[in-house]
Amino acid sequence: MYRKYKDVVSAVIIFMAGLIYFILSFSIRQYGDAAVDSSFLPRILGGLLLLLSSVQIVSGIRKANAISVSDKDSMVGHVGYLPVVLTLLLMFAYAAGMKPLGFLLSTIAFVFFQALVLIPKKQRNYIVISIVSVVFSVAVYLVFTRVFSLVLPHGILG
């Protein structure tokens, strides 16, 4: 079976998720009158997700149009939508876990499981993944709370 537009399809799925994410970022409550508030980063990330997925859509269309007729017969195989679907599920689980678990725990879990989705099984080092998940999440938490003075959900830790 020929999958000429597999990059376009996955980019459209990511674009739709980014659009939902961006729209939902406007419902985040603001605390105080700071120039950089709790909705600042989600809006930036949502915009970047929309921009990058748009670039991927255009790139995928150009790539699909450049495929010659002889190449079409050789492009038979598995598309690999599982990582995209798992990433979307992880994003929704991350958003759902933010209030009960708090920013820190939900971010640690998200980074850990996202790494498991993206890293091939033979190359996984659970100790390194765990350390990176914790260090990255704590660093982001400290930057948001100390540098940007944002109030993040505490969840069960607060």
Automatic annotation (TrEMBL):
Coiled coil regions, renumbered to chain: none
> What positions does the domain DUF1468 occupy?
9-153
Show the Pfam families listed in the entry: TctB
Task: List the InterPro entries.
Answer: DUF1468 (IPR009936)
The UniProt transmembrane annotation reads 7-28, 40-58, 79-96, 102-119, 126-144
Keyword annotations of the record: Membrane, Transmembrane, Transmembrane helix
Signal sequence residues: none
Name the chain's protein: DUF1468 domain-containing protein
What is the organism of origin for this protein?
Sediminispirochaeta smaragdinae (strain DSM 11293 / JCM 15392 / SEBR 4228)
